[in-house]
Amino acid sequence: MSADYAASLESVISNVVAPQAVETDRSGEFPRNSVEALGKAGILGLLSSADVGGGSGSLADGAVVIEKLASNCGSTAMVVLMHYAATAILEAHGSEEIRRAIAAGDHLTTLAFSESGSRSHFWAPMSSATSDGNGKVELNASKSWVTAAGQADSYVWSSRPISAEGSMTLWSVPSASDGLTVRGKFDGLGLRGNASNPVAGESVEVSKGAMLGEDGAGLDIALQTALPYFLVLNAAFSLGLMQAQIAEAGEHLKNTQLAHLEQTLAEQEHHRTQYARLLTKVDEVRAFLQDTLQALGSGRADATLRVLQVKAVAAEAASEVSDGVMRLCGGSAFRKELGVERRFRDSLAARVMAPTTEALRDFVGRAALGLPLF
After folding, report:
1. Res 119 pLDDT > 80
2. Cα 155 from chain centroid (whole Å)
3. Tens digits of residue pLDDT in 60-83
4. Sheet holding 154-159, edge to edge
């Protein structure tokens, strides 16, 4: 990432994202001010091509953004993560108009893959797309767990094909389209401001030109274009949470006194060794993430395997580290002012976010044993 983008990111985090993180978690409100500030700073358009006015950033640049955001506000980080994953598809198959709006920081997008009928099996949409034969298509769906539902400007939407072979077709659907309804208000354990809600689509009309790629080619596009971004950035998200927690734990150990021993907690062997174990786990995830990015960048033979592994590795480590930091900091960790319990709650989401850890382990086994993923 260029020095200018890095400085802009740090400024937005310091002045907007971090100061609002506690209130975002408390209220469960969407972090609109943070998202708008990131757009104005060029961060939402960082991964867009320079041809449309974007930053031409790499996946590695995106990982830095998500890690730093997650260290401060998990909800904001998840919103940007889904925006980047959807942007990858729109960059490859979207219209120039929407690509320019994203590059300018004026358009927030997100993925709408998961459905109530097939749940975390995002590769098996139950929703339909029906052509009227005159250039219009009607979409009907019951989407679930759509990040930034009702807040994003567009959804990268999956459906069954109109008529082609294949399991999925993708669409760019404006969120203001008639027939779209956001159901309920997200009130979750963690990531409380990410507006992850069900979205129902009833007779939503789009033009056939809203199709992203070919009819029936959506699964290939999702796997080859969006999934690497989603999995790698999800690992960066978990890493950011862990990094913040281990930093909080370190400060707690150094600054908390055992008056009767005239020592800090850091001077106690038990606390030191537990801290070292957790710190090493964080560093292991960072090394795995960097290796995954290097594998992708160099086209290494094991790149696909690393991509399938990295989210599961990071998500499970985040849960372990979060629990360990809660124990290490004792009763202080249960007080909201330390920030540990907020990040503990945020860290639990990645394991169950599709594709789940269990699904990814199956994919890894299949890939390693020469079997098809589906």
Report:
1. no
2. 15
3. 999 999 999 999 999 999 999 999
4. 109-112, 154-159, 169-174, 211-212
